[in-house]
Amino acid sequence: MSSCRLVTRTLAQQFAEQLAEATAPFQFALSTRAGTDCAAMLLRSMLDQDPDAVVVSIDGIGAYDHVSRAAIFHKLLANPHLRHLVPFVRMWYGQQSTYLWQDDAGQVRQVLQGEGVEQGDALAPALFALGIHDALDIASRQLQPDEFLIAFLDDVYVKTTRGRARAAFDTVTGCLRNHAHIDTNLGKCRMYGRREAAPPPDVPELGPDVWRSDKPAQERGLKILGTPVGSEEFIDTHLRARLQDQQLLLDRLVRMEDPQCAWLVLMFCASPRANHLLRTLPPEEAAGFAEGHDRQIWAALLILLGSPQLNGRTEQQARMIATLPRRHGGLGIQDATRRSPGAYWATWADGLHMLHLRRPREAAQLTALLEGQAMGRSGCVAAAEDAGRLLQGEGFRRPSWAALRAGARPARNTDPDDQGELGEWAHGWQFHACSQRNNLFRERVLLPALTPAGQAMLRSGSGPQAGAWLQAMPTCEGTRMKASIFQACLRRRLRLPLPLLHGTCGQISGHGCRNRIDVLGDHLAACPRTGLLGRRANPLERAWTRVTREGGARVAHKQLLRDTNVPLADPADQRQLDLVAYGVTPNGIALCCDATMVSPLTRQGQPIPRAAAHDGAALTRAEQRKRRTYPELLHSPFGRLVILACEVGGRWNADALRTVSDLAKHKSRGAPALLRPSARAAWHYRWWSLLSVAAQSALAATLLAEGDLALGGPTGDEEVPLGEVLEHAHLAPPASRLPLRA
Fold first, then answer.
1. DSSP code per residue over 178-204
2. How far is CA 575 from CA 88, 202, 558, 655, 656, in A?
3. 3-class SS at 376?
4. Number of helices and strands (H, E) in the chain?
5. DSSP character at residue 55
């Protein structure tokens, strides 16, 4: 990122509140919660409640390139809070801008521009909104009392009536042209009302496609910030086109050579693509689209899994597991059908307060309809209340609509096993509503359908960081996974058969119990006679050594307990610690670490006691065993026993979670003060990626009889620059609420 863009991004964040106030009440795009959804919700509700209402959609010609710079500077200078931005803005927009364009012949040409703002400039949206604000304000004062306009950057919408459609259009477009220097793109202008009717006499001259209320059913409607609003046929046509576009992405995705990269595109790009429509369309309208989306995503995932031949029950259970969040033992693939009611209700819950700040009269009217205090609730308003009742019936505590209009926000989630994951926005109502549905589905539908062994393995794959390997970016040796290994890890998590090379324990190595092994790999993951348990420990120990060294510790690998400062009765004691970390605790005490990986199943494929019904049963047994092994370390002032334990499914114990968190906090103290929160999060992400990938890769390699177990990459002796960590952390934003752009 260039220094200019970094500074503009910082200024945009620092002045976000003042910029939002300066562009209110028209602008829905700047630092507003669910602004896209709120705009669509408002306009659609007006159409649903008033059959005479018409929405006019106005789009400017090259609006960003033509907005008046004089209007921008006038607004900055007139605002005492924003005038501090003038010197910086003047450096870039106080004179003609020069752009270079290379034509097909290779000749470089200069393009001079004296108006507009630059696409990609982090301040550009705010500056553009300032530039058109006075035009919108003047136009708003010329509209009728029952009319209003709103904007999402250069997309302007006017709520009016059929008889006033042309007059309102002329008023707004004239003000934009005269006061902001933005002309209207008639090719994109649309007018639509619910009542099927011919256009007013003065509208057809704007163009044959402007008036939509007399079109065939498949064309009768318009898109409001990507949300189709119109007849059932119009909405269905739009949704089918979206699925076709999505299939093009999936067709390319499954042809990627690296399944780990293909998986990341599927999880972070393809799966969340439905989110915007789920938030803005009532669940009944979105049902067919959601089902089609889920089928497409599952079909692509099956290809990444190697197109296994599955019976109906096995595939159904695997698909249910895949749609759970990673913290609940799944893959994190969103189930759009299950998500739809929570996402749609959350649009209203998130947007009602913002609507109250922007359009208080309409917000009060909608609140009265939602709470049943006014007659005539229908359409999207009725669907919002129905979704809320569904969630409430499933145990979700939803506030009243009046409380939401007043700004009620969800309580902070204190459950350590149900925190938001990479790609989720855990602060909004959607996370909480959909988490409730996922938890209910897991407990009441999925777990009862699984065998006891399946239940134990689902719990083994749950918990904080249990699925960190699924979101690890393959940017270094320690986070890259071989294709066969990655595919095997996916199959293990979904309880699907593995491509094992032998059917008898010890058939290849000569060490084993000679019993038949299962195709799920449960026997090999638990049998102590194969020697595989010891072989898979080395990569995990190397990963922990690397993490603690990168965290700033002086690490002694494979140190004998007698060589530490801990007093022992027997000077010839042979007990050996996996690693000892010095210099990272406030009191200087050494961390005596023992890393282990355990299975919640026996080698017969049956769950150990309590594993099918309680999370972390295998970890508890491992911790008890380690404490019996090192009783001197339980209360020693010279060293503290740290049990770094994980289950084969991916679950980590409290010591492991605490150790990484403390290391990240310790390491981030060396970063500049403003970067410390980001540095801490980046180190946390990096280290859990390394540990989780090492653990799962080592397990899969032993199950598949892979020869190379030198996993984990370097041991942490090399200093990793903070800039590289921040870049590779790729702390992904939540699933976009914005519509897809062509």
1. HHH---B-TTT-EEEESS--PPPTTSG
2. 65, 92, 10, 21, 21
3. coil
4. 27, 12
5. E
- The token pair at 471 is 């979101």
| pLDDT for the residue 736 | 45
* Nearest-angstrom CA–CA distance, 736 and 413: 22
3-class SS of residue 109 = strand
Give mean pLDDT, residues 513-521: 89
User: Residue 5 pLDDT more than 90?
Assistant: no
Percent of the chain's residues with pLDDT above 90 = 75
- The total of other beta-carbon atoms located within 10 Å of residue 502's CB is 13
Going by C-alpha positions, the residue among 340, 324, 334, 344 that lies closest to residue 270 is: 334
Task: From 657, 660, 724, 728, select the one nearest 479 (Cα to Cα).
Answer: 728
Residue that the structure tokens 């620059």 belong to: 721
Distance CA 154, CA 63 (A): 6
Phi-psi region of 531 (alpha: psi -120 to 50; beta: other; left: phi over 0): left
CA angle 317, 318, 320 (to 5 degrees): 65
Confidence of residue 343 (pLDDT cuts 50, 70, 90): very high
Residue 273 near residue 330, CB atoms below 8 Å:
no
d(CA 176, CA 426): 38
- Helix/strand/coil for 13: helix
Is residue 274 within 8 A of residue 335, CB to CB? The reply is no
312: part of which helix (H) or strand (E)?
helix 312-322
How far is it, in rounded angstroms, from Cα 472 to Cα 479?
A: 6
Q: What is the pLDDT of residues 67-112, one digit of tens each?
A: 999 999 999 999 999 999 999 999 989 988 888 888 888 899 888 8
Query: Distance from CA of residue 145 to its chain's centroid?
Result: 41
Contact residues for 395 (Cβ-Cβ < 8 A; gap 6+): 436, 440
- With contact defined as beta carbons under 8 Å apart, do 257 and 248 qualify? no
Structure token pair of residue 301: 């995932």
The pLDDT value recorded for residue 342 is 96
Span between the terminal Cα atoms of the chain, in Å:
25
Angle subtended at Cα 160 by Cα 128 and Cα 65, rounded to the nearest 5 degrees = 20
Give the integer Cα–Cα distance in Å for 236 and 219.
Answer: 10
Q: Which has more pLDDT, 571 or 69?
A: 69
Q: How far apart are CA 730 and CA 722, in angstroms?
A: 13
pLDDT digits (tens, 9 = 90+) for 198-243: 999 999 999 999 999 999 999 999 999 999 999 999 999 999 999 9
Output the CA torsion 284→285→290→292 (10° steps).
120
* H runs (alpha helix) in 28-151: 35-49, 63-66, 69-78, 86-93, 124-142
CA distance 386 to 588: 58
> Pick from 542, 481, 525: which is nearest to 704 by CA?
525
Backbone angles phi, psi at 311, to 5 degrees: -80, 170
Give the contacts of 617 (CB within 8 A, at least 6 positions apart): 456, 459, 600, 607, 608, 609, 610, 611
* DSSP collapsed to 3 states, 475-513: CCHHHCCCHHHHHHHHHHHHCCCCCCCCCECCCCCCCCC
Q: What is the pLDDT of residues 262-288, one digit of tens each?
A: 999 999 999 999 999 999 999 999 999
Contact 440, 394 (CB under 8 A): yes
Q: Compute CA 53 distance to the chain's CA centroid, rounded to the nearest angstrom.
A: 36
Query: Tokens 């699907």 map to which residue?
Result: 496
Residue 337: is its pLDDT beyond 80?
yes
Rounded Cα gap, residues 539 and 227, in angstroms:
49
Lowest mean pLDDT among 344-358, 366-380, 636-650: 366-380
Percentage of the chain modeled with pLDDT above 70: 94
CA angle 544, 549, 550 (to 5 degrees): 100
